[in-house]
Amino acid sequence: MAIPPLLPQFLNKRRSKLTYALTKAEELGIDRPALVWVVNLSYRGERGGAAEPGDLDSAYATIRERWLPMAAVARGAGLVEERGGRWRVTAKGKAVAKDLHDAARAHYETLAPIAEKDLAELAQLLDAAFVAASRAKEPARRMHTPFAFAYRADGVRPGSFAQLDAAVYGLWQVRDDCHMAAWTDAAMSGPELEILTRAWRAEAADEAALAELLPHQTADDVHASLDRLRHDGLVEGAAIRTTEKGRRVRQRIEDETDRLFFSPWPDPVGAKGDWIARMLSEVNAALT
Predict the structure, then answer these.
(1) Strand duo 241-242 + 49-50: pairing
(2) Where are the chain's structural domains?
(3) CB within 8 A of 50, min separation 6: which ones?
(4) Residue 42 parent element (H or E)
(5) What is residue 46's DSSP assignment?
(6) For residue 159, is it left (φ>0), alpha (ψ between -120 and 50) or beta?
(7) Chain centroid to CA 92: how far?
(8) How many CB atoms lie within 10 A of CB 113?
(9) SS3 88
(10) 3-state class (DSSP) for residue 82
(11) pLDDT digit string, tens, across residues 187-246
């Protein structure tokens, strides 16, 4: 259970010293967020992306289409186009995304965060976990897992940092799908789930503080969700805290997420769970 929090830490750090995106954005005359949006859209493949929760829109947002300014900038640069309500990268956009992907792979070859033998084993163990989890029957509906296959479409060298990167990215997409399935089965919406989670973690002293934590939701939407959660007996008081029932519901969602995520992992991978967590922690520390 120590592994999931380490996955986004890795993804946030592994390109921290890669300057290619800034250089390329300047060359194209766009900002970095627009460039990153193009690269992420490229992982949708020919199907493209649409304005729906969990795709171009965040599953936790009530303010929709916050990505439109980035899309407009990218379209102005000839990197994306919109057809039939779906956004796709153009040939130029594909070339830019590939260049960034190749630059990242080249950068990874310069990294040695832990011993080569340990890195190779860590990469191969997590890759085996991804392959198994991505092919599992549950969750039946997967929106993000396909992105992982596009991310690794050109293949990776076994035992390399690039394989570790592809494995961690893939596992995080799988976990997203597992989490969405868990809270959907609990008859909750994404915005409600996020508010319940913030209350569960006691992150806000009051409703105003909670609204400040959620810039992708309007204050009215936050208030309405809190009213529903209070009505259902999951949250209580002005201090925004979960009730005993609320804690049980939120823990069940977390447990179901973990069940869906970890159950498919091969036994040899699970047997080394503590070692995987320790090695990935060391990798993350070295990437700081």
Answers:
(1) unpaired
(2) 6-183+257-282
(3) 56, 85, 86, 87
(4) helix 32-42
(5) G
(6) left
(7) 26
(8) 21
(9) strand
(10) strand
(11) 999 999 999 999 999 999 999 999 999 999 999 999 999 999 999 999 998 889 999 999
